[in-house]
Each structure stands twice: as structure tokens, then as C-alpha cells.
Specification:
Length: 178
């Protein structure tokens, strides 16, 4: 029996952040397809594996052990980040659950602070949605490109299924039509 299903039915910490009258329009999380997994692990192995190869070739085994540990840590962090990241779109805001060290942080971004919604890396209906803020607003929400572990300039919803549909929900929310 899947314990996560029971946890979602009885208690959902992310939905506890909803205010009265706030309605969830969409709930999702990053989803790796085979292409995304291949790109993510390939970039980790290419960068770190090159350094590992040269360390072994130079007979610098401590440095080689460091790079091997880094490869393992990067792959574990990649899948941990995907598992702990979650998004909610409501009629008022977007709520982000993002991993922070061994815990998670919850952030929210009001829809009226958004200027544009762009889809990046669209492929096979899934993609990354970039949220551009209106000029006077700033946010402390720091999202990470899950595929290569780089910080994003703007908040993003990473590797979401049906990215165009999700973008439409956000745009309707910006226009006040949700």
C-alpha cells in the first residue's frame, strides 16, 4: 500500500497554507521523463566524470575520491530535489514547496505581482514555466534548474506536465478570471 497516498488524504502541509476562500486550481510537481533524466545525469557525469578521469590518470586518488563522492551526491540531490519540490496554483497566488537542506521551505507569489509567463524547454507537453515579475516587485524565491542544479534568475515551475495548460491557468489568474 502506498503510504504517500494516505498521507495526502489525511494531511497535506502545503494545503494548510491556504487562506479562507482560496481555491486550488492546479497541484503539481516536477516530473522527469527519460529525456530529462538522461540530460541531467549526462551533464553531471560529463562535468564531474572528466575531472574524475584526469584525477585517476594523474594518480591523485584523494582528488578522484572527492570527484566520485561529488558525482554520487549530485545524483542523490537531483532526485531528492525532484521529490521534495511541489507547486500549487490557487485563484490568488502560486505556492512553492522547495527543498532546503534536509527540510522544505514554503514560499508564495501573488498572481498580481506577475507580468509574463513563459514556457522554456517545452518537449512532449512537459516543460519549465518561467514567471517574470512586474517591475517594482522582487521575490526571495530561489528556484533551481533541476536538470543541471543551477540557480534560476526568475522563479520557475520546473519540469511540469502539460506546461501549456498550467501557463493558461496562471495567465487567467493574472487577469483575475480564475
Amino acid at each position: 500500500m502506498n503510504k504517500n497516498i494516505l498521507d495526502d488524504i489525511f494531511h497535506d502541509k502545503l494545503r494548510d497554507n491556504l487562506e479562507e476562500g482560496e481555491v486550488v486550481v492546479w497541484d503539481g510537481k516536477p516530473r522527469f521523463n527519460n529525456y530529462s533524466r538522461l540530460i541531467a545525469t549526462g551533464s553531471i557525469f560529463l562535468f564531474s566524470g572528466t575531472h574524475l578521469f584526469f584525477s585517476i590518470n594523474d594518480q591523485d586518488y584523494w582528488f578522484a575520491a572527492f570527484w566520485l563522492a561529488l558525482i554520487i551526491f549530485s545524483i542523490v540531490e537531483l532526485f531528492y530535489r525532484q521529490r521534495k519540490t511541489r507547486y500549487l496554483i490557487t485563484n490568488q497566488r502560486i505556492i512553492f514547496q522547495l527543498p532546503k537542506m534536509r527540510n522544505v521551505q514554503v514560499h508564495s507569489l501573488p498572481l498580481n505581482h506577475l507580468d509574463k509567463v513563459l514556457i522554456k524547454d517545452l518537449g512532449n507537453k512537459s516543460g519549465t514555466i518561467e514567471l517574470l515579475l512586474k517591475e517594482p516587485f522582487e521575490t526571495k524565491i530561489q528556484t533551481i534548474d533541476i536538470r543541471n542544479n543551477w540557480a534560476r534568475k526568475n522563479p520557475t515551475l520546473e519540469l511540469v506536465d502539460n506546461a501549456e495548460e498550467v501557463r493558461d491557468y496562471i495567465e487567467k489568474g493574472i487577469q483575475g478570471k480564475l
